[in-house]
């Protein structure tokens, strides 16, 4: 960057869901998103968005991050990230404030790539914009049988998606029926991921339930416990039947180090906004590469697809954005235009300068 930051805008948009979702211990009836625009004096505008998880992300941007970056000329996004991190060190080393910093960091990287006239993935050193993709295919719903949910998964598999994620049903019998029916209808190369959503309280609880799901192999079992409980995650990995992936919503690289040190994960799940943006995500990717652990990027494909090209095999996650009226699991695609293109089991980052997508500014109260 070489121009002074002239404006930072933060906003919130809420989209209702047609039916409640149960994600581990949490029931979700609507999806709330925070977004940021950062503008420089020469007219470049960077943007970013994330789920708020019903926390005041935009307010944190306004109160804690904007005063640090406004009116200053930054050599690069890394220097701005460091200044924001140091300015909030008493309350912002983990958690909500890190997410707020992450939105501004992503927007500044968007500007940095725009200034050079290249897509962010190329600005970061990537050579190939095509990456493997994972589709979030189905969550358990009270009015849906396991067989009908499996039919959704099978339909996506027939369309070329080779990695398909579903969420844990707390009823082990329903979970077994769902897995077995889906696996029976999928192509041989397709694999299932089950997101447990931090739903178990202990490794003993998880290890007692997993055999009740039957013998369907998984690509990985995702977030069985809170990620800070590295040793218990390691116990599930050692004693359970499936590889383990952990990392959604992690806000500090130290948590990833602890998981890797405990030999607790087969797949590192990386949430770019939650961990503080592109700047710390690059460090996490380097750490995973050093330990030989593959990375799967948590949703926000318009952002994460630009990091996937830095390491071959890195997986970009998405929801189906082709459902008329919005995806009933996560309708974030209604908030933006452009961005990553998905075809079957691949994600292709755009070739436009910067992130290559636009937000619906009206939904966030900016027009």
Structural summary, described in words:
The chain is of the alpha/beta class. The chain has helices spanning 57-69, 77-87, 96-116, 120-123, 146-158, 172-185, 203-209, 230-239, 253-261, 278-291, 301-304, and strands spanning 5-23, 26-40, 45-51, 130-138, 163-167, 191-195, 220-222, 244-246, 267-270, 295-297, 315-319, 336-338, 341-343, 346-348, 357-359. The strands form three sheets. The protein has an eight-stranded parallel beta barrel with strand order 4-5-6-7-8-9-10-11. A three-stranded antiparallel sheet has the order 1-2-3.
Summarize the helices and strands and which ones pair or pack.
Elements: E1 5-23, E2 26-40, E3 45-51, H1 57-69, H2 77-87, H3 96-116, H4 120-123, E4 130-138, H5 146-158, E5 163-167, H6 172-185, E6 191-195, H7 203-209, E7 220-222, H8 230-239, E8 244-246, H9 253-261, E9 267-270, H10 278-291, E10 295-297, H11 301-304, E11 315-319, E12 336-338, E13 341-343, E14 346-348, E15 357-359
Parallel strand pairs: 4-5, 4-11, 5-6, 6-7, 7-8, 8-9, 9-10, 10-11
Antiparallel strand pairs: 1-2, 2-3, 4-14, 12-15, 13-14
